[in-house]
Amino acid sequence: MLFRCLFGLLTLIALNACAQSYTVPGGAADFSQLGLTPQAKAALTDTSVQTLLDKKPLVTFPAAIAVVRVQAGDYDSYSFHRYARNTPRGAYSVITIRDIETDDDFNALAKLPQVAGVAGIKRILLDGNLNSDLQLRNAAAKLHANLLLYYTLDTAFDTETRVRPLGVITLGLFPNEKAKVTCTASAVLMDVNNGYIYSVVEASATNDQLTNAWESDTAMDDARKRAEREAFTQLLAQFKSEWPTVVMTYNRRAPAAAGAN
After folding, report:
1. Which domain holds residue 108?
2. Which of 63, 149, 155, 172 lies at a 20 to 30 A Cα distance from 259?
């Protein structure tokens, strides 16, 4: 009996010691204090950012696509400036005359699955200065398009002299300069209704050729066109490869009614 009492006493002492050394886990974290609930996120997010996050895709398929090329507001080039000056300007300019694009490029886009048609935005559809995507979306709406595909070409030039003595001896007739042009083409696929962005694609290309001092402007512009053409072609290839993903992600039609044929 005495042994049992001593054993019980020792057990209670041991359990008490364990209880004093073991820390019971605390409660769950209050996510509202960490800004991780939707309401808290909205309260902590900048208004302009929250406006973008709140946009929802409104596209319906098959989709009609309006296509337009945009450049800097003061865009100019060796062979293209006369057209740009007749185009409305602002934060950016719109190039409505095709420079390096072909009809086949846009015909190929029109043949993509779930594309109802492709149309280019013309100058007559543009109103006033161009300060945001709203002017482009308004022009696309006039074409009854529900998607807007706008793209831009960022082209950089560089010239380095090679074999200078031969250029002097031949009075500049020997092609002793190398004109290098690098172009990055970027495109955005946007919802005409609310500006929701479905896809962003980009492609780059480089072109160079030997030239001489007498023909450097013409040669560089030829190199520009080749680089821009290659970058644009790769951009279209990127867009075509991503289009099925866009369709699969956003073509969520309502299920057919029960018993419908």
Report:
1. 47-250
2. 63
pTM metric for this prediction: 0.71
Q: Which of 140, 179, 135 is nearest to 157 (CA)?
A: 179
User: Which CATH number characterizes residue 103's domain?
Assistant: 3.40.50
* Cβ atoms of 216 and 159 closer than 8 Å: yes
**Strand-strand pairing, 92-95 and 63-72:** antiparallel
- Map tokens 């092609």 to a residue: 175
pLDDT along the chain (261 residues), means of 10: 53 52 48 50 62 79 96 76 53 85 96 97 86 92 96 83 46 57 92 94 84 61 88 97 96 52 43
Residue 124 phi, psi dihedral angles, 5° rounding = -65, -20
Q: Say how many Å lie between the first and final Cα of the chain, rounded.
A: 86
